[in-house]
Amino acid sequence: MSQSLNRSLIFRAGLAMAGIVVLALTSMLGSIMIAETASGDAAAINQAGTLRMQAYRLLSTRLQTPVDGGVLSQRIERFDADLTSPVITGLIPDGLQHPLAQRYAGVTEMWRDMLRPALLAAESRSSRALVGQTAEFVDEVDRLVGQLQQEAESRIRMLHLLQGIVLFLTLILVLGTMYKLVNDVMPPLRELFHVVNRVRHGDFTGRVAYEGNDELGLISRTLNQMNESLSRMYAELEQRVEAKTAELKRSNESLRLLYEAARQLNSSTPGSEDFRDVLDHLERVTGLGSITLCLSQGEAERAYQRISTQLGDRPDFCRAPDCGPCLSGERVPPRVRPVVVSESDRRYGVLLIQHPAGASPLRWQMDLVETVAGLIATALSLAQNNDEQRRLALMDERAVIARELHDSLAQSLSYLKIQVARLQMLIRQQGTSADQDAVIDELREGLNSAYRQLRELLNTFRLKMAEPGLEAALNETVSEFAQRTELKILLEYELRHCPLTPNEEIHVLQIVREALSNVVHHARAENCDIHLQTTDSGQVRVSIRDDGVGLPEQHARLNHYGTTIMDERATGLGGALEMHNRAEGGTEVILRFIPQVTAGSESVNLLGGTQ
Asked: What is the pLDDT averaged over residues 43-70?
């Protein structure tokens, strides 16, 4: 185990890295220790250097006439403090034999025994002697500063020596490692790269001769085994790749066919040309024979339309109008495979696949044909549902038109018919001209009212939503009524977060238009506010407020038919309409209903707004 470990490249590289790390840590720790011991050298040298300047300043103060004793005492005290400062004394060795300790003791002794007493002496002494003593003391301080510098430089020299030794040892270790790498690792590694490069170009015959017990030897043996395995597998690989490529190509073509078919059949109401394009594409992808689509009504035994990829739209086996056997799938020719076109248990016809004799369709071909049949059935179902919805919407709109005509124009014409009968009776009975004029006036008023109602109904029936959305239609309505009258209309639309169905948008728009029409013709108002929002309960709230005269007692007769139509539209929305007079004057019409987007849904309703 130990022998195998010693031959390991990782172990040997780890030893080299550990040696480099140890040398680096030694250098770093030594540098930190030397730097720590030299951290106060600069401050001590600077502090000692200031003693010279202070000595000359003391001499200058002492030589002044008269001598200022207070200033002199302060400066002597400061000198004592700086001379014995920890900044300097912290660097002085404890041993008295050390040159730096002896030099510091000499400076301290000279200051204490010579210069300080001379400066504090009361009797006047010779200035020349005092200057000489000061110069001698400054020289001693210079020697102390020089000794401090020598100590600092000695530490730096020690640091340089330590780093030089560590660097030398590191270079030796790196060079030794590089030597081992070049002689023991690079030759087998180059051989491995050569064999791998041959493998990369598809040549699996290369072998590595290196058989060491290290990691490179293990990789060499593994690579040799891999080449042997690849050589055995390579013979089968091309065939498998070709098979997979063909399968992927077929899958891609199938997906493209389904995408094109879904896009073409669902883009609009599909026609015979759309079906023909889909069948042609399906025939090319499957590679089968001609494909025929026969469309029928439910369980009918005769098709109403036949579309085939075969020339002339009539396959060889077709026996139309006897379509029952093919549609039922019970009796079809041997080389024809029927696929029912159905959606939700509703039959729309059959796809007839004509394949060559002795070559039955494969599973993937039939799956693709069945999927396309499902797309055709879905397209036909959607087309029928759209037709049914349009038919229901048309019938509903016709019912609304008939109801509005009955409640407005028909009643007005009935009233006019009664007035004509009264006038005929008066003429036959030779009634007074005053009675006849009264009936004629009522006829004229009724005709004017009927004409006005007819014009409003025509405007309603001609209503168009040029831009999609209720907000654009309401803005257009506000502009229309504002141009027709001097009424100031303010629209506040807060339903941008709430999607409405086209039916809901039409009903809301018609109710708002009818309410505005009532305001214009009856309210005598100057301002009108329209506010659309959602409540906390998820309802849509539409409010139309004006500052007019308010509702009369019998407001249902306000315009003879408007309020009734508004109530019916609100009921059609599943909501309620409320009309009342405002306390500050005017009328307010409020419509509330639950939009279909949340009606009957168990999901969380996020349409909450104001109360």
From this structure: 76
